[in-house]
Amino acid sequence: MKKSNTTELGKTISEAREKLGISQRELARLSNMDCAEVSRIESGKRIKPNILYLKGIAENLNLSLVNLMKLSGYSDIDIDWGRDLSEKRSTKDYQEQIKEYERFYFDILEDIDKRRDNAFACKGVIADLIDRIELSKIEKKELSNDEILEDLKKALALIRPNLEKADTSIYPKVDTALLPKNDIKRSSIKYSTLLGKTTDEE
Asked: Which one, of 81, 19, 24, 25, lies nearest residue 51 by Cα?
């Protein structure tokens, strides 16, 4: 039974641990920490655990390290700044980012299909109008301006949604800490103004 004064952090960890059927002792062993520390965290006695402990817990319980850090009271600067941000992200954080990209991908495909349907419908109205104009020439019976105008209005209404900007609310929320890092190395090649050629530096 959980103590009434447990924190949201302690509750989150204990519920995830119990759901997986892992004891506090086993979690401590897997996370390379003392069992007493796990107990302190879950009971709410340890308010702001070491990030390394939190990462071990996050990995072994499939929790978001970012979420655990927020529940521990770490600031956005603590979470999003540092020499190696990947140390402040767990496998769960990477999985969540992938889900964001997947949702965005399928939302975009759906939007493309809708725009394509609009374009085909618009094309149908215009093609029908062209056929009617050509037929009127053969039959020597001109279409009225009102008839032509009505069809053009239909075509415009059909194509208008395609001219609207994409809904930015469906864009994935990018966690820059999860992006691959490109190490930019300084070039060892210099240009000698005396020799008029490039030289390599060791």
From this structure: 81
> Which tokens hold the place of 59?
């990995």
pLDDT in tens, 37-84: 999 999 999 999 999 999 999 999 999 999 999 999 998 888 877 656
Q: Quick one: pLDDT at residue 63?
A: 95
Q: Given CA atoms 43, 49, 52, 55 in this order, what sign does their dihedral have?
A: positive
Give the integer Cα–Cα distance in Å for 75 and 26.
Answer: 30
Query: What is d(CA 120, CA 159) in angstroms, rounded to the nearest whole number?
Result: 9
Cβ proximity of 10 and 43 under 8 Å: yes
Beta carbons within 8 Å of 101's beta carbon, 6+ residues apart: 172
pTM of the model: 0.57
The answer to whether 17 and 61 have CB atoms below 8 angstroms apart is yes
